[in-house]
Amino acid sequence: MKYNFDEIVHREGSHCFKYDFREQLFGTNDVLPMWIADMEFKTPDFVVAAVKERAAHEIYGYAHLPAAFCDAARNWVKKKHGWEIQNSWISFSPGVVPALSALILALTQPGDKIITQLPVYPPFISTVKNHGRQLINNSLACQNGRYRMDFTNLEQKIDSRVKMILLSSPHNPTGRVWENKELMQLGEICLAHDIVIVSDEIHSDMVFKPHRHIPMAMLSKKIARQTITCIAPSKTFNMAGLSTSVIIAENPKHKIAFDNMLATLHIHGGNIFSYPALAAAYNHGSDWLEQLLDYLGKNIDFAVDFIEEHLPVIKTHKPEASYLLWLDCRAMGLDDGALFKFMVEKARVGLNNGIDFGGEGKGFMRLNVACPRAMLQEALVRIAGAVNGPAAS
Question: Are 36 and 353 in contact (CB under 8 A)?
Fold first, then answer.
C-alpha cells in the first residue's frame, strides 16, 4: 500500500494540543504550529482499524494487560534492533514521561542527584526538580554542529549521591544517534559508580541510514541489569494521544520497584484502546515506517537546503534520527524572549523555544518537519520573509 504523506489533514477543533492550544501558548491562533513532537500525518490505517474494532464492543470497562501487547513489543525490538527481550521484563506505562517520574520515585530518594545532558527534552529537567531530586548537568559538547558526550566532565560530577542518569537515545533535540563506543563508555562509568541508567529510546525507530540505533541494554549483561529502557509507538506511528508505552527492565529489582510505584500512583492500567493499537502498530507497521522515513528524509533535506540558501543567519544540521531540526539562531542577535516573539509575531510560526531545553539551548529553536511538504515550505517561507524581508519569499 502506498501512503499519502502529502495530504493536509485539518485538526482544529479536535481537542488537539498542537492547534487548539495555540492561543494559550503563543498568544494567537495565527501561527503555523511546528512545535510539539507529533506528526501531521494520519495515524496508520491498521492502528485506526484496531481501535475501531475494539470500540465496536460497547462496554469500555477495566482491562488487563494482554499477552499480545508484550508479544508485539518483544517482536518489534527484535526485528528492528536485534534485541532479544522477554515478556517478563516488560511493563506498561501511560507514557514515557510518567515512567520517568515513577522511576525517579521508585529508585531514588529526595536529595539524591540525577544526571541529565543538556540541551535535552524539557521533562528530563522538570521531573527531577519536581520530585525533590538534585539535577546535575553533564552538558553535551558541540563541534561543527554535532553533539557528543563529555565524559571528562561527567566523571568530575559523579559522587556518592549520584544515583541515576537520564539518557535521551536518540537524542532530543539534537538528533544524535549515539555510537557503540559512546554508549559503552557511558555504561562502564555508570557500572563503576552503581548509577541506574534510564534510557528514553522513544525516537529509536526513526533513524536514518547509515546510522543505527543501539539499545543501551544490548551492550552487555551487566549494563542491561543497570538499565531501564523506555520505548513507545507514539512518535513512530503518531498515536501519542493513546498514552501507551513499554518499559523494559531485565533487573527484577528495578521492574518490581517500578510496577509497585505505578500501582501506588494508580496509573498501572492502560485504556482499552491503547493495548490493541500498540499491538497493531508493532505487528503491521514495518512498511508504513519505511515509507515514512523516506518522506521525512526528503523533508529534512528540503528544510536544510532551504535554510542554507535563504536563511544563512540560521544554522542547522541534518539529524541522524527523528523529525526535529535544532536551529541555531544566535547570529540573529536576539535574546530568547525576543526570538520567540519574532517567530510568533513576524514569521507567524510556532516553534519550541530552545531555552526550554536548558541553558545550552539559549538562542536555539526546535522545528518539527513531520508534516506535508507544502506545510513545511510555507513555514520556511514565512521565516525567510520575516528575517530577510518579503522579497525573500
Answer: no
* Distance between CA atoms of residues 225 and 219, nearest Å: 11
Please give the single-letter amino acid code of residue 210. Answer: P
Q: Residue 204 in contact with residue 171, Cβ under 8 Å?
A: no
**Quick check: 354 and 118 in contact, CB under 8 A?**
no
- Identify the three-state secondary structure at position 325: strand
**Would you call 295 helix, strand, or coil by DSSP?**
helix
Q: Which helix (H) or strand (E) holds 224?
A: helix 221-225
CA distances from 105 to 188, 227, 240, 261, 361 (A): 24, 16, 24, 7, 27
- Residue 188 to residue 248: CA distance in whole angstroms: 20
pLDDT tens per residue across span 58-113:
999 999 999 999 999 999 999 999 999 999 999 999 999 999 999 999 999 999 99
Q: From start to end of 160-306, where are the E strands?
A: 162-168, 196-200, 227-231, 245-249
Q: Which three cell numbers stand for residue 217?
A: 541494554
User: pLDDT of 112-159, one tens digit each?
Assistant: 999 999 999 999 999 999 999 999 999 999 988 899 999 999 999 999
Q: What is the rounded distance in angstroms from the CA atom of residue 84 to the CA atom of residue 325?
A: 32
Q: DSSP for 110-163, please give it.
A: TT-EEEE-SS--HHHHHHHHHTTPEEEE-PPEEETTEEE--HHHHHHH--TTEE
Nearest to 347 by CA among 327, 319, 321: 327
Q: Distance between alpha carbon 385 and the CA centroid of its chain, in Å? A: 30
* φ, ψ (nearest 5 deg) of residue 137: -100, 115
CB 162 within 8 A of CB 195: yes
At 4, the amino acid letter reads: N
Instruction: Please list, in sequence order, all residues whose beta carbon lies within 8 angstroms of the beta carbon of residue 388, skipping any fewer than 6 positions away.
Output: 310, 311
At residue 392, the pLDDT reads: 44
The rounded distance, in Å, linking the Cα atoms of 25 and 176 is 28
- The pTM assigned to this predicted structure is 0.95
Answer for the pair 120, 142: CB distance below 8 angstroms, yes or no. Answer: no
Look at residue 393 and tell me whether its pLDDT is greater than 60.
Answer: no
What Cα–Cα distance (Å) separates residue 122 from each residue in 32, 36, 74, 150, 318? 22, 12, 29, 20, 21
HSE-CB of 201 using CA atoms within 13 angstroms: 27
